[in-house]
Amino acid sequence: MKSYSVSILLIFSMTISFGQRSLLPIDSISGYVSYTQIEKIDSVSANDLFNRAETWFAKTYNSSNDVVQKSDKENFTIIGKGQMKAHAQNFGARSWGYIKYTISIYCKEGRYKCVISDFIHEGDKFATASTYQPSVGLFTKTTPQATGMSGYRAKDFDRICQELNEKVTKLLSSLSSSMSKKLESKSDDW
Question: What kind of architecture, by CATH, is found in domain 22-178?
Fold first, then answer.
């Protein structure tokens, strides 16, 4: 009975450690990793949704002025370039560079669309020999094969993919929460 339980545990752990790439959504046209969220928010104008998105950028990023590349109030569109740290949780957290990405928010009457895409991993330039992780580059459906990853590096890439998925999911959840809340009215009575 013990060997049966151990075998199931080993199969399960292999699925976890080698299967994280499958968590990442791949755009069927470009072949790139891309997250898309479309939400209806009844009875809210495109202008109000645009203002909520601007407020979300300001509260989410340390310097939204550095992140936002284009803010088009006429077309209710915001496009930004963000980045997040990339670690692999192996013998403690180690900085393995950054993943840069593009975030685009499009607002229409009663709905918005958010696309987070163009994920590019850049290895930590200041890492020591024991923590150095080379750059992976653009995340696509063929990234591991194209970069010749196998064994240890493939496991690290899977861990980075898992972390990327968790962080982007939290980012989208935060946006969803902010977009569904009415902005506080400005009052001079304070």
Answer: 2-Layer Sandwich (3.30)
